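STRUCTURE REQUEST FORM
Protein name: Small ribosomal subunit protein uS2c
Source organism: Cistanthe longiscapa
Requested output: structure tokens
Priority: standard
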Amino acid sequence: MTRRYWNINLEEMMEAGVHFGHGTRKWNPRMAPYISTKSKGIHIINLTRTARFLSEACDLVFDAASRGKQFLIVGTKNKAADSVARAAIRARCHYVNKKWLGGMLTNWSTTETRLHKFRDLRMEQKTGRLARLPKRDAAMLKRQLSHLQTYLGGIKYMTGLPDIVIIVDQQEEYTALRECITLGIPTICLIDTNCDPDLADISIPANDDAIASIRLILTKLVFAICEGRSSYIRNP
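Status: completed
Returned output:
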């Protein structure tokens, strides 16, 4: 795997609150190696470990992007949703930021059918066909289109299973993580002190409740993906 310098700055991570974990009563003992101390009833994450695993994750996504691989970013809780969409759009990745529909990956044939329906409805709307239908029929199809846009809008161009899945908040997205494990899809997971660090291929210990923390981690990963994509374009 390519080793590169990703400008991961401990001071920058502290300013973003990456080091703040959950309360000491709400933790997973398996996270002990990633915790440096406790303060005022909360665990403090060891940012040196965070920097190490974030750097490894950046190496992984750079190499994958440089080979034309596809990424899916998942983060559906309110504090993550906007950052996930922005990061994914910037790096031309697929994303899910509203709700993970069970079986989205493990039952890919059903997801594919929904995506075909979604694309057909979007085309009918663009060509004006929906507007020419009886009001009742048009209203029903517009509701379907709105529903599909909400839940599948971020993966509308996905034509197959992703090569790597990036997950924000292991506990919130546990179903997505289990589907990836079942299918053998490599995962990079942002994990707080209440998570299990052994489930993902690369676990990045970090505050998963602060918008600034989530945004910083995603920014570093997205930069690495974009750099990898540039390399892929230059060296097809």
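Reviewer notes: The longest helix spans residues 211-234. The mean pLDDT is 93.
Form closed.
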